[in-house]
Amino acid sequence: MSQLDELVQMLGRQYVLSGDEAEPYSVDWRGRYSGKALAVVKPGSTEEVAQVVRWCVAHKVPMVPQGGNTGLCGGATPDASGQAIVLSLTRLNQIRSVDTDNDTMVVEAGCILQSVQQAARDADRLFPLSLAAEGSCTLGGNLATNAGGTQVLRYGNARDLVLGLEVVTAEGDICHGLRGLRKDNTGYDLRNLYIGSEGTLGIITAATVKLYPVPVAQCTALLALSSIEDAVSVLSAARKGFGAALTGFELIAGGCLAGVVECYPQQRIPFDGESAALPWYALLELSDSESAEHARERFETVVGEAIEAGLVLDAVIAENITQSKALWHLRESIPLAEKAFGKSIKHDVSIPVSRMADFVRTTNAALQASFPGIQHVIFGHLGDGNLHYNVAKGQAFTEEGLLAKQDAVYELVHNSVHQFGGSISAEHGVGQLKRDALPRYKDPVELALMRRIKQALDPHGLMNPGKMLAS
Amino acid sequence: MSQLDELVQMLGRQYVLSGDEAEPYSVDWRGRYSGKALAVVKPGSTEEVAQVVRWCVAHKVPMVPQGGNTGLCGGATPDASGQAIVLSLTRLNQIRSVDTDNDTMVVEAGCILQSVQQAARDADRLFPLSLAAEGSCTLGGNLATNAGGTQVLRYGNARDLVLGLEVVTAEGDICHGLRGLRKDNTGYDLRNLYIGSEGTLGIITAATVKLYPVPVAQCTALLALSSIEDAVSVLSAARKGFGAALTGFELIAGGCLAGVVECYPQQRIPFDGESAALPWYALLELSDSESAEHARERFETVVGEAIEAGLVLDAVIAENITQSKALWHLRESIPLAEKAFGKSIKHDVSIPVSRMADFVRTTNAALQASFPGIQHVIFGHLGDGNLHYNVAKGQAFTEEGLLAKQDAVYELVHNSVHQFGGSISAEHGVGQLKRDALPRYKDPVELALMRRIKQALDPHGLMNPGKMLAS
Lengths: 471, 471
Known about the structure:
The structure is a homodimer.
Chain A: H1 2-11, E1 16-17, E2 39-41, H2 46-59, E3 63-66, E4 85-88, E5 95-99, E6 104-108, H3 113-122, H4 139-144, H5 152-155, E7 162-169, E8 174-177, H6 190-194, E9 202-210, E10 217-225, H7 228-242, E11 246-253, H8 254-263, E12 280-288, H9 292-308, E13 314-317, H10 321-332, H11 334-340, E14 348-350, H12 356-370, E15 375-381, E16 386-392, H13 399-404, H14 406-419, H15 438-441, H16 444-457
Parallel strand pairs in A: 2-4, 3-4
Antiparallel strand pairs in A: 1-2, 5-6, 6-9, 7-8, 7-9, 10-12, 10-13, 11-12, 11-15, 14-16, 15-16
Helix pairs in contact in A: 1-2, 7-9, 8-11, 12-14
């Protein structure tokens, strides 16, 4: 215990947790992964993070960086050995500065995403990163995993929202890269290397993020469609007609909406007759920089043309914010309804948009051939080529029966994703969940380069070992 | 010579140039850097590139990758030793595929940028990368240097236009990363590491690039301004009013326009009286996805409000494409007029937009204090925080007198850039030109990480040695 005493001396007793106090940090929020930490260590500044890292290097103690502990792949959970510390960034929670002329903001890693969004709004700006866990996830975690979310189509992934980083390296040096520059060609792109590296190369302690103007008006519609092919054609027309004002294009299988209204009878599919029972729907969103009238007019032109062309069979355009929220609520209730019907097998995949229809048809057929009666739960960000291609028990399986098939289902779906030139992790990362699948699908040359980079930047192998790459 | 015989056998006699034939490849296009190549080698496929690299590794021969040889920092010119080969990518010039549903295109590194733009246009899409050398530079060179250009404000730098890369590593392996995915979180971001690495880590042989809808209409205006502060306020208003439709915001010092019309009397400053002699001008461009009328209306609203607020003193809005081209021609003639008045000292710098006015004021004063009568030639992409902050002889210096001060001027300007949180290379890269300045301004931790990455990915030190990092 003399080891921990040194940390206590460094940070203060209340910032070094062990035993029962450490337990909540050693289990992920869904309870899928659990481990044991030597201690949970909470430095209060970048300099303290560097001190803790140097202490870890001196004592050969592995580190598991953790933000809001909301990850979906077990990337922030320690292993069972009890040898690693959890290095919690939650005390680094300051908005260091806001620069409205430069449209940038310097934010510490432990800031809750919602607070970052709010700080931007307080300055009459938009920080567009937005995802389900925003009330508890931290910006550092978002960057470590290169989070996606609902605004990627217009604003890109988390990495696209960052201009500069402050990083504590795996040896405890502070890398001062908080530049607020939109152009800087003076060397290798370390920023993008740390972003998405899941804490395996170093620890992001702060970031300079981009701010955008707040849209003046938004329009939302639910479109009823007969095929994914038609959805892709409508997406293409919306890109052309709306330009960068297109901020959302979500694809939803008819069965998902049916599930939501079955589970939550107070919600309804806003169509009647045949239109309420079509195989596919799309949620379309436009964000306008002019006026509500202009947004509406523009929206009706594009949707009208898609109806005339026979691509859209029916459409409901939200008349006001309440109706718009109701449409988004339908979409956002899908995962909850899915959960209410029992555990399901989830895949966070991406596919080139042009091959999406073919991927779904082929993979659905292969799943039915191998697991007759299995139920498809398909929805996602079509605009980004990102599908949550999930599988539920339906009537044919029990929950246990389904989970017994989990590995076989993963393999079938991931093999198919690979054949269609897709990715087995679109926005959730690798962590522990997909670590062992990665070598099956990643180009071996690329994997070898990753290992070299890991070795070069984390020579002691102490940064989040066993995540992303097997140690 | 038996060494070269092996290459001749590999590629054919006509693709291994030496002696006089090799000379044009050993001098940069401006004649600022010259060296000597062992040979110029022109592989015709990715597999042949890999073979050549493996041959170089086996024989310990350094490689200098080269595209259109249009770089501005000597990054593609061999040193004087005659030991390195120039590895020309110009035969890899195929557009491999165009996918309009996915809005992507697979392009080989040796394609001329203009051909890439044309291939996109042929598919009714826009590939937005655009810069002065587009008729002869290659996409591979654009990516190796992370080129900027005129469309960065809306579409980002070259790296932002790429989804996937095919790379031949420094050991001659082919890394197959030509993914057409907008979301892919399965490992370290190797793509962004190779982009901007100036051929020092490996050789980009092909890329999957993003395509965009072609704008329906564009509007251009020249605004007359009394200060950079006002220009920054107008930029802010344009960002808010136009959203992502804002595609250009160029700042031009009054003296630059005066120089253009003095040099090219057929051009004119489109203002009369006082408005023709103001200290600053801005070229504003909007790209609309709806109609010419809509673009015009929108444009007039924002410009009108800026005039009412006293931020813009006068404005000329182009009435048609001819007038719009004339305004852009004024801007694009600045470097030519500058050249006509004699050699100048050029700086390609970026500064946070919020500090731009202060930077220019402070640096101008410091230059006048040290070099009385020196002439300022200032223009650039204000929207990106990127200034071409150049210095000319004016009446006070002879050409030789100015060039004798070159190193002192560089140092003064770069020191000031550094103090204002800027970058000494915004869009041109490092190459040979800024290699030795880099350690003075780059965070030493960052520089050390760069060296580790270089060592890890280019263990034999044969990839473009002496560029970016001293070897």
